[in-house]
Design goal:
- By secondary structure, the chain is of the alpha+beta class.
- Helices cover 25% and strands 22% of the residues.
- The chain contains seven helices and 18 strands.
- The chain has helices at residues 38-48, 108-115, 131-149, 187-200, 227-236, 257-260, 330-352; strands at residues 5-6, 11-16, 22-28, 65-67, 71-72, 75-76, 81-86, 152-160, 163-164, 206-213, 241-246, 264-265, 268-269, 277-278, 281-282, 287-293, 303-306, 312-315.
- The strands form six sheets. It has a five-stranded antiparallel β-sheet with strand order 1-2-3-7-4, with helices on one face. The chain has a five-stranded antiparallel β-sheet with strand order 9-8-10-16-11. Strands 5-6 form a two-stranded antiparallel ribbon.
- Strand 1 and strand 2 (11-16) form a beta hairpin.
- The radius of gyration is 21 Å and the shape is globular.
- The chain starts with a strand and ends with a helix.
- Bound molecules: flavin mononucleotide (FMN).
Length: 353
Amino acid sequence: MSHNTFGHLFRFTTFGESHGPAIGCVIDGCPPGLEIDATEIKVQLVRRATGKSRYTSQRREKDDVQILSGVFKGKTTGTPIALLIENTDAKSKDYENIKRQFRPGHADFTYWKKYGLRDYRGGGRSSARETTMRVAAGAIARKWLKVNHGVEIQGWLAQLGPIRTDKNMRWETIEDNPFFCPDPDKVPELESFMDALRKSGDSVGARVNVVARNVPVGLGAPVYGKLDADLASAMMSINAAKGVEIGAGFDCIAQKGTQHRDEMTKEGFLSNHAGGILGGISSGQDVLVSTAFKPTSSLRIPCRGLDIDGNEVEVVTHGRHDPCVGIRATPIVEAMLALVLMDHVLRHRAQNG
Ligand SMILES: Cc1cc2nc3c(=O)[nH]c(=O)nc-3n(C[C@H](O)[C@H](O)[C@H](O)COP(=O)(O)O)c2cc1C
């Protein structure tokens, strides 16, 4: 299975499966001299972790990250940074019954058709366990962007099923609840919705937004290296992502040009429908990205499916699953945004000095 590497000048390669002994990544291209330690990486990993509330999968991984190389006396050396996390709470038995079956909506069918075999335990490589390493690599990119350019990145849950949570945003409350919800008044509604959903055995989709502030002007290239194209690719590479919008996104369909264009004055832009990117290049405005996540496909509610011999079967999925993957996606979209921006800062520096 190739294509496990992301980025150009700041690039990382992830490895590992959900129920294998460990997951890890190798980050190449990080400039020397950045102060980083495992505790800082762990802060982000904890934000992404399962088992923190009754609204996520109850798998409990310690996510203790080991820095195997590339950091000496607390500073990056400019050599490859290898990170490793052991899987300590996999329960592979739960997946015995889907060994020969394809879960509708999951990657089982396509993995089988493409590779002729698959690690069915916990979804193997298709599991969002892989995103742990994106968050770990993203923690380093985030720190570098903050130290060198003052870039601040914050994501939030903008919608869960029918519930919009972004009308009365209070930024300081995002980390105070298990949903990354920016409106504390909406949290009880989310809780009762999720309690009823969990009881019913069903799942639901979500929208997760992210903003990067203090992004330098000039990141991205006009044709095949557009910042918005790379961001869309990065977000779509996350498991269960089904749509990405930049700035006004699909709302631009109904907008008039007079409304959409972001007028400029000496004091700056008067609006930000562009989402901080014009002609594929960052404008210095906030970079705004929105990602739609589909409902989890592993459900205990029976459905019609096929097995590997082509027989029609009833598929029921056991094991520990997220009833709404969007609840844990916020740190992942933040990481992907940081990883793209850092790569583009280095690419910009390489061409423009
Ligand atoms: C944070 C996160 C958690 C997820 N948790 C689950 C899960 O518990 N069960 C599941 O079936 N899918 C889960 N998924 C989604 C699957 O990984 C994904 O649907 C699968 O790999 C198929 O890929 P696709 O949905 O991109 O087509 C999760 C995704 C994310 C981003």
